[in-house]
Write a structure and sequence with these properties.
With about 290 residues, the chain is mainly β. The chain has 1 helix and 25 strands. Strands 1, 22, 23, 24 and 25 form a 5-stranded antiparallel beta sheet that branches. A 5-stranded mixed beta sheet has the order 2-3-4-5-9, with no helix packed on it. A hairpin with a 4-residue loop joins strand 19 and strand 20. The longest helix is centred in the last third of the chain and has 6 residues.
């Protein structure tokens, strides 16, 4: 798709596709940057807008997701401040802007959490606004927690989790990022070495889904890849690594008949061997 050359994005840690603006991805840097979200064009790699989040602090922003707002029909950007050994443990909910221009946005809501985990780099939001985070564990088989919907505006103690079932042991702690499709029926999570894919079976909860062994799908070798995001139409997914002048990778789904958007029938198995990796280097900028 594009090559990111701006000096403003050098530790891209989260990635999410806008629900309101075609071909726009949101990203952010982790610790060391301020409270800013960058809107990127997937076609040029350029920054379309810088969104400063009022009354938010970037202790260590580790992931970003886009999904329905809680108790609203609008679309929201969710930001996880969950790194740095749990210094903040806060999730911000910010409504997508009505105009795609550089501006300051208010925080719609927050939730703070405490748990018996060290840190977290994975935030996912499903099609009804349910929020999930995944604690990093040695070998990559992290612990998935659901944030209770009634917890917004409060602090919550998290106890119950499901351990991921993964076919390979990672050489590092993980997972390092994840995303759920707009329909809520498909899920991606990445470790240092692999990208994993789950498809929800009929009537299955997210907890039951990640307890099953996933399918390994393509991912480029990146110097420090953490960010992954489904496209808004789920015709493929994007990845972006930390570091300067990093390429934005797009992995396109070729078999369109495999798309599943929530019919009552159980989905057929997706043939991810039909994916093709598209890497196009477009414009450079400063």
């Amino acid at each position: 798709m594009a090559k990111i050359r701006t000096k403003k994005i050098n530790e891209a840690s989260g990635l999410g596709a806008s629900r309101l603006y075609e071909d726009i991805l949101y990203t952010h840097n982790d610790h060391g940057d301020s409270n800013k979200i960058y809107a990127l064009s997937v076609n040029s790699g350029s920054i379309v807008a810088v969104l400063t989040i009022r009354n938010a602090k970037n202790e260590d922003w580790e992931d970003l997701a886009v999904g329905p707002c809680f108790k609203s029909s609008s679309s929201c950007i969710y930001v996880l401040d969950g790194g740095d050994a749990g210094k903040s443990n806060t999730i911000y909910m910010i409504e997508e802007p009505t105009m795609m221009v550089t501006q300051t946005l208010n925080v719609n809501n927050t939730v703070s959490y405490s748990w018996n985990e060290k840190d977290c780099e994975t935030l996912m939001v499903d099609n009804i606004g349910e929020v999930f985070i995944v604690a990093k564990k040695k070998g990559g088989r992290g612990h998935l927690y659901r944030i209770p919907r009634e917890s917004w505006g409060t602090s919550v103690q998290l106890h119950n989790y499901v351990q991921l079932t993964l076919p390979y042991i990672s050489s590092n702690r993980g997972p390092r990022g994840g995303d759920m499709s707009r329909s809520g029926h498909e899920l991606l999570m990445r470790t240092s070495e692999h990208m994993y894919y789950w498809r929800r079976q009929n009537g299955e909860s997210t907890e039951d889904m990640v307890a099953r062994e996933p399918t390994v799908v393509p991912v480029a070798e990146e110097p420090q890849g953490e960010a992954v995001a489904w496209s808004a139409t789920a015709d493929g997914y994007y990845t972006l690594s930390e570091g300067r002048t990093q390429p934005l990778y797009f992995y396109k789904r070729l078999n369109k008949t495999d798309k599943y958007y929530g019919s009552t029938a159980a989905p057929t198995k997706l043939n991810w061997h039909s994916l093709i990796l598209i890497i196009v280097y477009c414009f450079s900028f400063s």
